[in-house]
Amino acid sequence: MTEYGYFLAAEEHGPADLVEQARMAEQAGFSHLWISDHYHPGTPPRARAPSSGR
């Protein structure tokens, strides 16, 4: 059986959005979930990371 996963981009979305996306992915039937492990923000304009508070 084919299984599908969903990738959460921590550089693009804040913690609350990531949790909501994970919930929706589970409800949609995705069997795997991945999240990037960047703990420090990148460079503007996409300088978001889970620990950046932005």
UniProtKB/TrEMBL annotation:
Transmembrane segments: none annotated. Gene3D superfamilies: Luciferase-like domain. It holds the Pfam family Bac_luciferase. Residues 8-42 form the Luciferase-like domain. GO terms for molecular function: oxidoreductase activity, acting on paired donors, with incorporation or reduction of molecular oxygen. Residues 35-54 are annotated as: Disordered. This is Luciferase-like domain-containing protein.
